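From the pipeline queue, job 12 of 40. The input is one protein chain; the requested action is below.

Action: predict structure.
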Amino acid sequence: MTSASYDQYRGRLEEYFDRTALDAWAQLTSDAPVSKIRATVRAGRDEMRSTLLSWLPADMTGLRILDAGCGTGALAVEAARRGAHVVAIDVSASLVDIARERAPKGMSGEIDWRAGDMMSPDLGDFDHVVAMDSLIHYRTDDIVGVLEALSARTRGSVIFTVTPRTPALMLMLTMGKLFPRADRAPAIAPANIDALSQRLAGLPGCSVGRSRRVQGGFYTSQALELLRC
């Protein structure tokens, strides 16, 4: 069962990505020219995606993968190229439509594109779950709840990212509040990485594995690995 705060914020994200930021997000995740600021975000996301993919098996033939918050589908496509059956889900139906249109033919695996809630039990069980930059808007209690629920349906690992609480990032977030509300994305909720890791280590049947921070320009994100014992 999800919390009221999770459900409320999920609704805000759905509205933001479907109505306010669709064109900008489609451009950011393409090869189209972008501003210098957005170029740092694109480069950071590319590096983070490569990191998360490197934590997954090189050969995923026969494995079932959940791409939780798939966006426009780049990670899902790479996993399918390794032979995985990927359930790629995002809160934004419009982003999923773009992902479906961009997906190439002839991959060794397959992708089941869906719009909806990554927490839905109807999605079933998985060998690995990846949640790249899809938890960064939620408070720590909600992040722990989501990961606990997902790990209970995962045989291998849950790989995810959060925004680390750093002085520089907090300053940037404060400066961001000066922009008009219509131009702002839903608030990012920075997490204390040590405190989060301790809470995750206490989840039943789980241990915390690898951790890596990707930081550059206007992109800062921390990758963490939650392993099933």
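Job complete. The chain has eight helices and seven strands.
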